[in-house]
Amino acid sequence: MKSEPLVIGWDVGGAHVKACLLQEGRVHDVAQWACPLWQGLQHLDAALTSAAQRWPILIKAHHAVTMTGEMVDLFATREDGVCQIATHLAAALRGPVHFYAGDEAWCTAAEAAAHWAQIASANWRATASHVAAWADGRAGVLVDVGSTTTDLVAFGKGRVLGSSQSDADRLATGELVYHGVVRTPLCALAPQIVLQGRRHNVMNEFFATTADVYRLTGELDPAHDQHPAADGAPKDTRHTQQRLARMVGHDASEAPADAWLALARAWRSAQVATLAGQLQRVHAAHRLPADAEMVAAGCGAFLVADVWAAAGLPDRPVRDYGVDVAGLAPVAPAGTAAWARVCAPSVAVATLLARELR
Questions:
Q1: Which among 11, 91, 197, 218 is most buried, taking Cβ atoms within 10 Å?
Q2: DSSP string of 51-89?
Q3: Is 178 helix (H, G, I), strand (E, B) or coil?
């Protein structure tokens, strides 16, 4: 019987690198490192070094790579970004490096230039393809709420539904929403917000992000709060309140703590409403059945049940990507399911490549 390959799955984003260690077809470990790629490829090198220290066995692995980092303004074009990242990884990683290209399967670094459009930002398709295979013919929607974006991807009959191939396609269909629970500027969520019964116009300034909202509501895991605050100040409660207050022309000292918590909840409601509207579009476009599965992924998975309810969809149990789909090894460290949920594309590409190599 042929042994299962050792595979490291990589999701190289513009703000994080996510990675999964897959052995004998099961997830043994998952990790994420902050990687402000727009500041230079040295940040990618730092993440790779951290991964090698965590997993010395990495030198014996096949590598499955997906990416969204090609979009950062370090690169002249998305094509340039794909080619530079592919070349960089092929040089840095030992062992075969396979780049996920969606329906065109896998490419080497040498082939990346010819297939850059299929490689670019295909991580959503990897996760959705993994979920579709897990669902065994059942229909549903993958709702992956990340630090920066949300993917709303319909699946059914064992495959990803719809004709979208690019981020441009998905922005047009509602399958991609540039809303996340860490890095999204609050001024992107709503033009007006209510504080203590008064409706305020929102300052269109980078004064606060969604991390401030979910830090104050207590829903954001500190382990996922990896980027500096908008003002570079600490992330304690008082400074978080101050950033929220600035959005409506106040200082935190001008209202009690419960007012700022209520404001955070108002921002939360605004984000849930936006995501729900896009979920409705995707659900209706594919005429999904009433018993469609709801699969939650991402560091903002805590929003998914509320988004589903706000969209007016039939009540369904939330399927957790990390628990229900990922396929954890019995020896995986405590907390691996949560990290598999957050780093779903890295788990998905590792799993898809392992199946291809069998």
A1: 11
A2: HHHH-GGGGG-EEEEEESGGGSTTSSSHHHHHHHHHHHH
A3: coil
**Which residues, at least 6 apart from 294, have a Cβ–Cβ distance to it below 8 Å?**
140, 141, 143, 304, 305, 308, 313, 316, 317, 318, 319
Q: Is the pTM of this model over 0.90?
A: yes
Domains parsed from the chain with CATH numbers: 7-125+322-357 (3.30.420.40), 137-181+273-321 (3.30.420.40), 186-272 (3.30.420.190)
Closest to 350 measured CA to CA, from 48, 60, 61:
61
**Tokens 């860490």 label which residue?**
182
Closest CA to 243 of 258, 254, 233, 255: 233
Dump pLDDT digits (tens) for 137-180: 999 999 999 999 999 999 999 999 999 989 999 999 999 999 99
CA distances from 191 to 200, 208, 211, 272, 312 (A): 9, 14, 18, 15, 24
In three-state secondary structure terms, 314 is coil
State the number of CA atoms in the 13 A half-sphere of 323 facing the CB: 6
